[in-house]
Design goal:
single chain; 76 residues; mainly alpha; 4 helices
């Protein structure tokens, strides 16, 4: 059983990105997700990051909620 707490910090860690609060804020500021582009198809993901995000959403996994939060933040 996966006991990982699914936070934005842990999502960034799972994606292989710097997961400090400052780094997450900077990532969100630097990356804009245009309307009509699915999160998993964003230009800034590697193929493995994109696959992870796509799988999370397709399977409605435990990660889906925090992935959705990231999606919203990247569109603001």
């Amino acid at each position: 059983m996966d006991m990982t707490q699914h936070t934005m910090e842990n999502l960034f860690l799972q994606l292989g990105l710097d997961n400090s609060e400052e780094a997450i804020e900077q990532f969100i500021k630097q990356h804009d997700l245009p309307e009509g582009v699915k999160l998993e198809n964003a230009y800034f993901w590697s193929p493995s990051q994109s696959a992870f995000i796509k799988e999370c959403l397709a399977l409605d996994s435990d990660w889906a909620e925090v992935v959705d939060q990231l999606n919203v933040q990247l569109r603001q």
